[in-house]
Structures are given as structure tokens and as C-alpha cells.
Design a protein that fits this description.
The chain is of the alpha+beta class. The protein contains three helices and five strands. A five-stranded antiparallel beta sheet has the order 1-2-3-4-5, with helices on both faces.
């Protein structure tokens, strides 16, 4: 089932997500719905809070060399904790909750991620490049933060102005 994605400036996006304790059929169905929702919106990542569920769960599906995203490549990440972040990289990010806007954001270049899968099993993932960036972007959502909050003051002001203009044009 495709779920509605909440968008900026909805206050729900500011909510800090709670730890997942039940790894049951309800969670499994929700993760499947998140995947359908993400794919229907052409996203590469989606945090549970973006579909109004404040739990520490996110999914990622980084496109392969041909730009394809397959269900086999989905990573379901529950209760993530970043360890050993290294280096810095600037990457142009967008967000399904801030549609149509892209800005350069500084992130760690590499990291180790400790998390649980849909069955509650402990997992470790070494991530670099786009995967590391996407993980950090989605974990920010779990903390109630959006990528636009990482912008400099002037770039943030420019974003606010452009966003208000875009909203007026939609009406």
C-alpha cells in the first residue's frame, strides 16, 4: 500500500522517533508499504517518520550501475547507530519531504552502521559514498531534522524564499 508522504513544513517531521521493540508482522507489512511508497515516489531512501510513523526505521535502495532499483537491494534499517564516521564529502541532496529542492550538504564520507533487520537481528554495515550519505540523511529524519537545517544561514534564507514562491505558484 502506498502511504502519504508528509512534507515540509509539517511539524511531524520535527518529532524524534522511538526505538522499535516489536519485530512483528505489523512491522513487516509497514516496511513493505514503505518500500512501495519510496519506489512510487522515485526515492532512494525513506524514514518511517516521513509517512507519519515515529519509529526508528528506514529503508534504502541505492540504484545499481544501470540506475535500476530492485527489491533484492533494499536495506531495511531499524534502530540505527553510526560508528566510526570518517572524512567529509559535499553532496547535492534532495528529499521526498521537501519536493523539488536540492542543496549541497556536507556529510561523513564513510561510516560503520550498527542496526537491526526486520527480524530484530543485529547487523553491521560498512558504508561509503552515496550509501553513507543516504544513511545519514535518513537518520537525521529519525532525529527530527531535515537536510535544509544543515544549510548555511544565507542558503537557508534563500531556500525559505524559493519554497514560499513555489507554494504560491502551486495554488
Amino acid at each position: 500500500m502506498i502511504l502519504p508522504i508528509i512534507t515540509y513544513p509539517n511539524k511531524q517531521l520535527k518529532v524524534r522517533s522511538s526505538e522499535v521493540v516489536n519485530f512483528d508482522d505489523l512491522l513487516h507489512r509497514f516496511l513493505d508499504d514503505m518500500f512501495e511508497t519510496m519506489m512510487s515516489s522515485n526515492g532512494i531512501g525513506l524514514a518511517a517518520i516521513q509517512v507519519a510513523n515515529p519509529i526508528r526505521a528506514l529503508i534504502l535502495c541505492i540504484p545499481d550501475e544501470e540506475g535500476e532499483q530492485s527489491k533484492e537491494n533494499v536495506i531495511e534499517i531499524i534502530n540505527p547507530i553510526i560508528h566510526n564516521p570518517k572524512g567529509n564529502v559535499l553532496y547535492q541532496e534532495g528529499c521526498l519531504s521537501v519536493p523539488g529542492f536540492y542543496e549541497d550538504v556536507e556529510r561523513f564520507e564513510a561510516l560503520t552502521l550498527h542496526y537491526q533487520n526486520r527480524h530484530g537481528e543485529a547487523c553491521v554495515l560498512e558504508a561509503t559514498e552515496l550509501l553513507a550519505i543516504a544513511i545519514q540523511h535518513e537518520i537525521d529524519h529519525l532525529e527530527g531534522k531535515l537536510f535544509i537545517e544543515k544549510l548555511t544561514y544565507n542558503r537557508r534564507k534563500k531556500f525559505e524564499k524559493e519554497y514560499k514562491k513555489a507554494l504560491k505558484e502551486k495554488k
